[in-house]
Amino acid sequence: MSKSKIHNDFGFLGQSFQIRLISQLMIDHRFAESMIEIIDPQFFDVANLKMIISKIKDYYEKYQTIPSFPTLETIIKTEVTKELTQETVLGLIKEIQEADLRDGLAVQDKALMFCKQQALKKATTKIQTIIDTGDFNRYNECEELMKQALSIGEAKDDGVDIFHDIDGVLSDEFRSPIPTGIKGIDDLMGGGLSKAELGVILAPFGVGKTTMTTKIANSAVNAGFNVVQIFFEDSVKVIQRKHYACWTGISLSDLQSNVDRVKEKIAERKSVIGNLRLKKFPSDGTTIPMIKNYLRKLISQGFKPDMVILDYIDCVVPTKQFNDEFSGEGMVMRQFESMLAELNIAGWTCVQGNRSSIGATVVEANQMGGSIKKGQIGHFIVSIAKTLEQKESGRATLAILKSRFGKDGVIFEDIVFDNGRIVIDTADSGNVSFLDFEKGQVKRKEDHIRNVFDKFQENKNN
Known about the structure:
Elements: H1 15-27, H2 29-35, H3 47-63, H4 69-79, H5 83-97, H6 104-133, H7 139-151, H8 166-170, H9 183-188, E1 198-203, H10 209-222, E2 227-231, H11 236-248, H12 259-270, E3 276-280, H13 288-300, E4 307-311, H14 327-343, E5 346-352, H15 373-377, E6 380-385, H16 388-393, E7 395-403, E8 410-418, E9 423-425, E10 431-436, E11 441-443, H17 446-461
Parallel strand pairs: 1-5, 1-6, 2-3, 2-4, 4-5
Antiparallel strand pairs: 6-7, 7-8, 8-9, 8-10, 10-11
């Protein structure tokens, strides 16, 4: 029976794999922290790649962080004196920076398994040496060697002391929320959505999910934040036009007849706002790891998003097959939430309502299409409802169904919801009421309603 060949470096996986691995170390700092101490330059079979990984490890040991690409280039320029070698290494760094990231998670898994195997091989060699001495008193040493080998690559997380950063915990800015630009919602959710938090918009088709996500994206950008708006069904030009309507107040149908005014308004905004990146993904076959790799690539290029908007998550497919179509939906939402936490980004997404939500006066949580797990994972859920009359008059009813950081059960009835001008105004609500979840009906609570309206008036006056 033939034995499998023993590999001592990454050479059997090819140079392309080694370049993509270094790329993952550069852009995914969480992965780098779990690998940097165990990855050996000798694992690379190309001399200049060994040099690059050595420089990265030296920098990390000194500063406890992975160098940026410009910093790595500066290190090579100052520490590599041979001109031809310097030019070759800088060329490799450019290849690393431009590496294909689509299978980044697979590259990480292969590299980690290889390093674990190398560590296990070293540990078993040492253990065998101890066993051969016949000194049974060193059993605990053998056990510890095995434990260390099996635990390499685990993320460093020793927990947080309960008394850590008391001032920061008690600060009004501990969440640093990003506003939605919809006053009633911002007031009741403590200013907006913060990084690592997940907001969900529930609505039937055709009522304005994209209007609301565009409004939220536009407001965040206006507040100076970097936003990535991902969509599946609209074209890039359609989303651009919606943002132009936001900035100008000109209806989508009138943009073309007001080109000069639109250009003037956009020029005014361009120099004073954050950055917005629009990205269309295919509506079939897109997974959260694919989106995650796209965001990592943006980060490696110097664009660090504060917020990502996914319009909408029902278009994302799970990374493994399930027996029925709804079982994977909870997994997809959980992956989205985990991605937000890992990259420290605020996230909004939409979910489709079921048939009973079409034409409903208020869309409730039990009218969510597919798996209810999508709602259980979200930190904040707001629904949009439109009757036929409201569609015709440019109005809607918003309901806050869930909030982990503010009041939920609040309903803003018959507000301005103009899909043409991308205007959503809760201050113009016909009534503010509360949803009684136990009885499944709307109840008026006059005292609280008065307090909410007082707050609206205060905001309007200011």
